[in-house]
Amino acid sequence: MKKQKGGGLLGLFKPSTTEFTKAESDINSLSQGRALTMGALPSSISTLMRSGRREARERQIIYEKWSEMQANPFVNTAIWLQTTAALGGHETTGDLVFIECKEEVKDKNMLALVDDITTNLTEFINSIAFKMIFTGASYGDAYARVYSEKKVGVLDVYTDELVSPQLIQPFERGSRTIGYALTTGKNSFERLSIAQMARLKMPRVSWVPQMGVYEKSLVGNLTNDDVSSHELMPSSAGGSFLHGAEESYDNLNASLAGLIGQRWLDSIDEQIVTLNMTDMNNEQQKKFTESVVAMLTRSKEVAEKSVKSGRPFLERMKHIIPVWSEKQVQQITPMNGGQSGRSGDISLDDVMFHAKNMVGALGTDLSMVGFADQLSGGLGDGGFFRMSAQTAERSRISRIALRDCIEQIINIHCFQKHGMVIPAGERPWKITFYSSISALAAEQARTRLDAANASLTILQAIDQMKAAGVSFESGVAFLRDEMQLDESAAKVYAEVLKTPEGGAPGGGMGGF
Question: Which among 67, 114, 359, 417 has most CB atoms closer than 10 A?
Answer without folding.
Answer: 359
